[in-house]
Design brief:
By secondary structure, the chain is of the alpha/beta class. The protein is 46% helix and 15% strand.
Length: 618
């Protein structure tokens, strides 16, 4: 029966390793934790058992975009599924809740963990015939996880409504500490873990210090002509690097969260179909990506965590054919990584002050405000608080992690603008549209780099400067876009904040110093793991990753940069002695000259290693 469902809805003849065992565990009524690496087919593990029995599967997921993507995919397969997320109208939510209560043909309801806190949802939930609780990205429930989200703790609270319903927790990355914490926090009746090894036999890891990253990237593409991904942190750099590659006749495109959905889907589809060889992207690229023939993944910036690196690098070689994961870094990258860590932990006084000013700005009295949604203007709040945008976002993220409020996805997104017209075309436009000239000049005065890059803009700020309404600014920008003067990528919705609890005095926020310090300590440990991984020159890269995720008994891969260096330096005792004699014979020369002379007889790497050992003994 299970394979029949798999064939009917997904077209697969067989389950992937561990999928069938996980499905059967759930159907047997067992609480189950599935730890499957990226590309391991986690969604099948709850979708198949949900279809195999009557009733509804409640899926808790942290990302709106992921919920939408999975619901859309299920609907394409003829399976009824819905998602409830912030920004929906009350009528729309009532319709979906009604379907899930009264229509037995509905099989999946996706919600965010924050939704579980609301009384309205809980009342409706108890009227549904829930047969499975699926918790996606389950590492978010663990304080030891790299993306801890306190609202996930509400999942344990709703289990009392369905005491016989099993929980299936799924994640791609979890350390042993996180594995134990997930099962405890979700109140597993007994521990039950299905874990596929993190070892990727076909994926070879290279981590190299490199000053000329672009030159090295071009050489890599020349030697590896297959499909690839280049990951960077900065949205602007995605475009710059893509254009650089295009200059050298590489079919490349860029991708980041600031682009509108239509453009993102177009870029992703062209890459998936092979029209684009290289996609240069931020970490926004990856969700729902299941392209099997990615031959290489390059990181030009250092990821924040080993978990993030493993997931992104793991998008290579899903067809089980040889692929490489390359990270290029320099000293500035290390400094930036450490600086980002410090910025991500603003002082507690700053966080509390942001909460106070935010509450006062929206005139929320103490003891009120639960479930109140308000529009959010980051620029205005930054001016009031005298904070940089990145400082504000990190402070709001901490408030979100305490369960006080929830940010819409659009809080971290902004509209973008890029001038398409050159100077001549712009002058021609002014000639026929004299009434728009002042507004265009205001754009150019307000934002630098508009002719060369997609720049984030604020319609609210432009409206304030131009003494216009926001709607008028948006209308002007859309008109300029239609006339090919600019490319205006408007955010899908205005950012907003949902207050999840009644306001309390800022000093009463559940934000104790010891909790803050513990989280910072855990984050520092993750940062140290990343730094150790990139600076390591002794231990196999694959072994380091496996050890991080709890697999302590593994063999060297034999292929990564460390293993290759070790193998190339293997020399017998006699060979080492001969190299030492040659070096000592030429000791009156400079190290560079010694290497040059002795390398005529022996491997340069071996000469350098023996010379290094001799110098270390002095």
């Amino acid at each position: 029966m299970l394979k029949t469902l798999l064939k009917k809805y997904w077209g697969y003849e067989q389950f992937r390793p561990l999928q069938e065992e996980i499905v059967q565990s759930v159907l047997d009524g067992n609480d189950t934790l599935a730890l499957l690496p990226t590309g391991g087919g986690k969604s099948i593990c709850f979708q198949v058992p949900a279809l195999a029995q009557e009733g509804l599967c409640l899926v808790i997921s942290p990302l709106i975009a992921l919920m939408k993507d999975q619901v859309e995919n299920l609907k394409k397969r003829g399976i009824k599924a819905e998602a409830i997320y912030s920004g929906m109208s009350n009528d729309e939510m009532d319709r979906i809740l009604g379907n899930c209560i009264y229509d037995p043909s509905f099989k999946f309801l996706y919600v965010s963990p924050e939704r579980l806190k609301t009384d309205t949802f809980r009342v409706n939930l108890q009227q549904m015939k829930i047969t499975l609780l699926a918790v996606d990205e389950a590492h978010c429930i663990s304080q030891w996880g790299y993306d801890f989200r306190p609202p996930y703790l509400e999942i344990a609270e709703i289990r009392k409504f369905f005491p016989k319903v099993p929980v299936l927790a799924l994640t791609a990355t979890a350390t042993p500490e996180v594995v134990n914490d997930i099962q405890e926090k979700l109140l597993f009746r007994k521990k039950n873990l299905f874990q596929k090894s993190f070892r990727r036999e076909n994926l070879t890891y290279f981590v190299m210090p490199e000053e000329n990253k672009m030159g090295r990237l071009l050489k890599l593409i020349e030697k590896n002509p297959g499909t690839g991904i280049v990951y960077v942190r900065n949205r602007r750099r995605t475009q710059e690097i893509a254009e650089y590659l295009q200059h050298f006749k590489v079919t490349a495109d860029f991708y980041h969260a600031g682009l509108d959905n239509v453009l993102r889907d177009k870029k992703q589809l062209e890459w998936m179909n092979g029209k684009t060889q290289v996609i240069v992207a931020t970490n926004a690229f990856g969700m729902g990506i299941d392209k099997p023939d990615v031959r290489w993944v390059v990181h030009l910036d250092i990821p924040d965590t080993i978990e993030a690196y493993f997931q992104e690098a793991g998008r290579g070689g899903r067809d089980l054919k040889p692929s490489i994961a390359v990270m290029l870094y320099d000293s500035n990258d290390v400094k930036e990584l450490k600086n980002n860590f410090q910025l991500s932990f603003p002082p507690i006084t700053t966080i509390k002050n942001v909460y106070k000013v935010l509450s006062e700005h929206y005139q929320i009295p103490i003891g009120e405000g639960e479930n109140r949604m308000v529009p959010f203007d980051p620029d205005e709040l930054c001016r009031k608080l005298k904070l940089k945008p990145i400082e504000l976002i990190h402070a709001l993220s901490f408030l979100e992690k305490t369960g006080v409020l929830m940010l819409s996805e659009d809080v971290k997104k902004q509209s973008t603008l890029h001038f398409m017209a050159d100077e001549k075309a712009l002058q021609n436009f002014y000639h026929y549209n004299n009434d728009k000239q002042e507004f265009v000049k205001l754009l150019l005065r307000s934002y630098g780099g508009l002719f060369s890059n997609y720049i984030k803009i604020s319609e609210e700020e432009l409206a304030r400067r131009a003494e216009m309404k926001v709607a008028e600014v948006e209308e002007f920008l859309l008109e300029l876009s239609q006339k090919n003067i600019v490319h205006y990528s408007k955010r899908n919705a205005k950012p907003h904040i949902l207050f999840l609890q009644n306001r309390v005095p800022e000093n009463y926020l559940y934000f104790k110093d010891e909790i803050y310090k513990k989280r910072k300590k855990v984050a520092q440990k993750r940062l140290d793991s990343v730094l150790y991984f990139i600076e390591n020159t002794q231990t196999c890269r694959s072994r380091l990753l496996l050890t991080y995720f709890g697999e302590t008994k593994s063999e060297p891969c034999g292929n990564c940069d460390v293993c290759r260096q070790t193998l190339s330096l293997k020399m017998n005792r006699k060979e080492k002695e001969v190299i030492q004699k040659e070096i000592i014979k030429n000791k009156h020369l400079s190290p560079k000259e010694i290497i040059q002379i002795v390398s005529e007889q022996f491997s340069e790497k071996k000469v350098i290693e023996v010379l290094r050992q001799i110098m270390n003994n002095f």
